[in-house]
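User: Fold this, then the next.

Assistant: Folding the first:
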Amino acid sequence: MDLLTFALLLLVLLCLLLGAGLWISMSLAAVGYVAMTFVHPSPGLFLASAFWESTGSWTLAALPMFVWMGEILFRTKLSEELFNGLSPWVRRIPGGLLHVNILACGIFGSVSGSSAATCATVSKIALPELKKRGYSESVAIGSLATSGTLGILIPPSIIMVVYAVAAEVSIIRVFIAGCLPGLLVMLLFSAYIAIWAKLNPDKQPPPEPRLSFGEKMRASAQLIPCALLIIATIGSMFVGWATATEAAAFGVLGSLILAAVTGVLTWQSFLDSLRGATRLSCMIMFILAGAAFLTKAMALTGIPAALAQGAASLNLGPYGLIAILTVVYVLLGTALDGVSMIVLTTSIVIPLVQHAGFDLVWFGIFIVLLVEIAEITPPVGFNLFVMQTMTGKEQTEVAMASLPFFLMLVLTVVLCTLFPVTLVTGLPDWLLSR
């Protein structure tokens, strides 16, 4: 049996297992076991070692800590304080308080790391307020659904940790590389809102009264706890004082203190946050373990190397390869979540990307941007589900409201591909070389 036929049979087996409803981690491990039996007499030994090596990593210890930090903050009044602290500064800009959706999601995402948590938490505060003041419900829903995806692009990000571990690159370098693309996405979202507001003045309330500088500063005092937590968590990594795992531990401590100060830290909320973090962390690590075994099996069969040689023989060129991968990931995003997309494809895609000469840190940000797009792509766009639950609207209606912002994400992918050093890899290279 030639390698191409063997690879297609494995792909069919994986699709059948996933379609039958088997857990993703078990499906990956089962396909890896089948592949391994053709090249090694004792696949069970590789299964045990792959599971242990993939989950016993010190680097991966940052993952459950960041997840727990997000769970704790989800139960605080942080989103309400963000909305109240940011709104005085944007109420006179075209689009008014709609810009708060972008800013609040960006800031909350930087301390949460979760797209769904960012979307749900900020929406819970912003939607009633915007509806009460007469803002367009469609633009409000679309901006919140897409801005919630900033939770996985602005560091620290759970998806970034998963990619860094799977691709064996520096977590801190990937974190830093996500900063400028995250700011670019926020600017593009706000630019669209401002242009829309200028073209549709009848679909927004009249400008609110001006506030004095002192009144704005007093309202912004509510941003201090969040700002301190961001500085403590991200700043300690950027300046080299802490590793990603140590920074995650500081983040958990800071979020616990913040929850205690705001009066929402009870024994029950503490246990709820711990249970939520444990469930999500175990799910992600189990998927990573299955993917690690499949990666090891693929390497022994020689399928990734053969695919890399095949792609090179097509003479697609680097941008041709990226165009194909973009289509593949968008299609995957219609049926899988971000973590599954990354771990399912890493063993195959990384050799192709390296052979084409792309930087793996840049490719990590490229994948994260595509995962952002997947979060608002029907039928399995997680943020669409969140907004559907929050608003009671049909998923198609939420998806149509998100379409203009979806196009802004596509534009970001194009810009990051055309200017990789300026927008992605230049900042981590400059900071970490000092």
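Now the next one, as you asked:
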Amino acid sequence: MISSPPRPTTLADLDARAREIFRDIVETYLETGEPVGSRTLSKRGIGLSPASIRNTMADLASLGLLDAPHLSAGRTPTHVGLRLFVDGLLEIGDLGREEKAEIDARLAAAGSDLSSALSEASLLLSGLAGGAGLVTTPTRESPVKHVEFVLIGPGQILVVLVFDDGQVENRLVQMPVGLTPSQLQESTNFLNLRLKGKTLSEAVAQAVEDARHAEATLDKVAASLIEAGFAEWSGDDPMAGRKLIVRGRANLLANSQAAGDLERVRILFDDLERKRDLIHVLDAAREASAVKLFIGAENPLFSMSGSALVAAPYMDSQRRVLGALGVIGPTRLNYARVIPMVDYTAKVVGRLIERRGLNLTE
């Protein structure tokens, strides 16, 4: 008989004493970056003897929440422990008025150039949060201007998309059996009526959906042509034209003390060079449409460096996600401060792009 995997530990599994000790260990570790021992907790006024604290620490370690990185008696939270702390015990407030004012002023001073504004956002995040700042540039998609189906040979049709910025995308599809010239024109008219002004991703989604539900205005052969032409649109690589702006790598070195820390930073520097992979990670924040946190091995990219990433999408006034930004650093990031900072910066960047009409195709 195959046994089921162990159930993840929750706060409900901890009694009041274990919860208090766990919270103190994590908070002390986030402050100092050092393993936390029973005597340290006892001196903080926890009201228990070092022996009682050690017993509870051993129980927390058996649950996978604490680890002993060295031979000393000190403990550090595991990635699982940090996740439990962030999700259940971390108290996240709002940014202070001065920090908000600094973010507002620095981004406002970046001018009307999108690249400068995003670079400044990455730089200010690295400085305020003490890690490296990351920003992805927006997906370069111009609205669709015209759609055309062109018969180019026996059994083959060319799907052509013309965009407002003059770009042209096309792909070949097999002609549905029984398709007539009038149905070909009908399909073209159907799409031009519905897709003009939409980006490629919006056009692909709507074309397929509309064709499937247009029995009253579109016959089955024409609908099958539209679905074939858009359901598996190849187009350009969706990563083409996407850039990752990284600022503040030196902060990662400044926060490293032990040789083990320096080795993890070296690995993280290698990770930062894998920009395509990092863009994919930041895109997860785009899809969530909210602040997203990755801690260590929760994402394969950070499994070796043991890093943490706090990321958030930036959007326009219609809540269309344009890109993402965030802070990467050691797992002992000051989450209570960094999370609202990343969230607020993303909102300011979105408003800046909307208000100034910054050119997203530059």
